């Protein structure tokens, strides 16, 4: 296969190569610093930061699955990818993306317990519970990805070799199949739509209870701290779901903006997440200064 990428003027090849390479390096370093800060600061050994570590690792890896190939695409012949490489890229992208979807739901549940059930929080969110919840997100992501990857690549391929996208994703790959893809498109829409909307509904429900509990806090300082704790999570959920809905939950869409949104989703969002989580978090800022 040949990954076409997005159109750009030839004279911008080198600047774009350097730009995406810089974005990737900043993403990797930023999320690695989050992991190191939590690992070496005992005060951050809490459920909230345990799940944040998983998010940082996911951001590092999903960026590593997509961006290096985008960077290579600016070099002569860099867009070529083997069939096996395409399968691997699609599998890991959906594995990591779905795991992140489940993780955001778990993180919302964690904030719900911390704010709405503070006296029972330590008992419910035990070390064992945190391990089980984290394992569940990764297992669910792998199961989803195995189903999607198997359904996509059991079809015969040979209808061209150019993937009209920035990486091997289901809608772009299905266009190269030599068979009817209507069933695959429907399953993809229903599967991703059901998972995304279910997780979003659970997150939304958690935050309805959270906001209700925050408004009952008497002190202005207490309300400010509670809102500050949740604001980062709400922001990253929005930056996750808006591109997801735009790309996958519009059946039959061939909008050229899909490529732009995919660039944002796979390169900018993983870079922004560590910034968002540390911007107003005094504990994290203090831990980062010690590195």
TrEMBL record:
Q: Which residues cross the membrane?
A: 16-37, 49-71, 91-109, 129-147, 192-215, 227-249, 261-279
Report domain G-protein coupled receptors family 1 profile positions: 30-277
Topology with respect to the bilayer: Multi-pass membrane protein
Which Pfam families does its entry note? 7tm_4
Where does it reside?
Cell membrane
GO MF annotation terms: G protein-coupled receptor activity; olfactory receptor activity
Species this chain originates from: Podarcis muralis (Wall lizard)
Q: What are the annotated GO cellular component locations?
A: plasma membrane
Provide the gene name from the record: LOC114583475
Instruction: Enumerate the UniProt keywords alphabetically.
Output: Cell membrane, Membrane, Olfaction, Sensory transduction, Transducer, Transmembrane, Transmembrane helix
InterPro entries xref list = GPCR_Rhodpsn (IPR000276), GPCR_Rhodpsn_7TM (IPR017452), Olfact_rcpt (IPR000725)
Q: What is this protein called?
A: Olfactory receptor 10G6-like
């Amino acid at each position: 296969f040949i990954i076409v990428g997005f159109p750009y003027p030839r004279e911008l090849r080198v600047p774009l190569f350097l730009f995406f390479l810089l974005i990737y390096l900043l993403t990797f370093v930023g999320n690695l610093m989050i992991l190191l800060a939590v690992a070496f600061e005992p005060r951050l050994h809490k459920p909230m930061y345990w799940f944040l570590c998983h998010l940082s690792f996911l951001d590092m890896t999903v960026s590593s699955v997509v961006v290096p190939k985008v960077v290579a695409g600016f070099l002569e012949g860099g867009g070529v990818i083997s069939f096996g490489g395409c399968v691997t890229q699609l599998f890991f992208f959906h594995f990591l993306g779905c795991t992140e979807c489940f993780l955001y739901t778990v993180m919302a549940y964690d904030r719900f317990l911390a704010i709405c059930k503070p006296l029972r929080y330590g008992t419910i969110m035990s070390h064992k519970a945190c391990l089980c919840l984290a394992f569940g997100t990764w297992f669910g992501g792998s199961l989803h990805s195995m189903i999607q990857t198997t359904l996509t690549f059991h079809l015969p391929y040979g209808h061209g070799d150019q993937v009209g996208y920035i990486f091997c994703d289901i809608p772009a790959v299905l266009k190269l199949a030599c068979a009817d893809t209507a069933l695959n498109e429907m399953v993809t829409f229903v599967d991703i739509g059901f998972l995304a909307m279910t997780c979003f509904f659970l997150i939304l429900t958690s935050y309805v209870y959270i906001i209700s509990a925050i408004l009952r806090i008497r002190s202005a300082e207490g309300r400010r701290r509670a809102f500050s704790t949740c604001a980062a999570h709400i922001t990253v959920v929005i930056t996750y779901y808006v591109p997801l809905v735009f790309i996958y939950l519009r059946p039959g869409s061939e909008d050229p903006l899909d490529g732009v949104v995919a660039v944002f989703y796979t390169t900018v969002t993983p870079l922004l997440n560590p910034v968002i989580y540390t911007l107003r978090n005094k504990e994290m800022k203090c831990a980062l200064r010690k590195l």
